[in-house]
Amino acid sequence: MYKSYYPKAKEIESEWVLVDAAGETLGRIASKIAATLLGKHKPTFTPGVPMGDYVVVINAAHITTTGNRETEKFYHKHSGYPGGLKSVSLRDQLKTHPDRVIRDAVWGMLPKSKFSRQIIKRLKVYGGAEHPHSAQVDK
């Protein structure tokens, strides 16, 4: 009889991965980040178990997109009041908050389960090359 393997909490080891987003396409890098956060690169991957690594993304302001996406893609939010819809283009979002662009793209690629909020907390995104996580990444 074969028994399924289910990793215990003390068996799960998380590492810190540094990703440089300069010159990378938004969707391609977001899918790689999502797979690393989920732990799909590990041989003991189990769906429904947060066993992925921490990911630090630098140079988020220097990502590229294909086609006319910088002017045609919009991020929407609503305040809840009449007329409270705010829309921001991708170009403006990259200028003001480049971390939100990658975070939203990765969030859309994660499964919508009870672990997705835990998983997205392992993602650290910075617009420039400096980040405060150098001690963890240098291991």
Large-scale geometry: globular
What's the name of the CATH homologous superfamily?
Ribosomal protein L13
Low-confidence stretches: none
Supply the number of helical segments: 6
How are the strands of the biggest sheet laid out side by side? 1-2-5
Number of extended strands = 5
Helix-strand makeup class: alpha/beta
* CATH classification, class level: Alpha Beta
The overall number of domains is 1
User: What is the third-level CATH name, the topology?
Assistant: Ribosomal Protein L13p, Chain: A
Question: What is the overall pLDDT average?
Answer: 91
| Amino- and carboxy-terminal Cα gap | 40 Å
Radius of gyration: 17 Å
Report on the biggest sheet. 3 strands, parallel
CATH architectural grouping: Alpha-Beta Complex
Helical proportion, percent range: 25-40%
H/E element string? EHEHEEHHHEH
Beta-strand level of the residues, as a percent range? 15-25%
Q: Can you put this structure into words, describing what you see?
A:
By secondary structure, the chain is of the alpha/beta class. The chain has one domain (11-130): Ribosomal protein L13 (Ribosomal Protein L13p, Chain: A, Alpha-Beta Complex), CATH 3.90.1180. Helices cover 32% and strands 17% of the residues. It is built from six helices and five strands, in the order βαβαββαααβα. The strands form two sheets. Strands 1-2-5 form a three-stranded parallel sheet, with helices on one face. Helix 1 links the parallel strand 1 (16-20) and strand 2 (54-58). Helix 1 crosses helix 4 (98-109) and helix 3 (90-96) packs across helix 4. The longest helix is centred in the N-terminal third of the chain and has 13 residues, at 26-38.
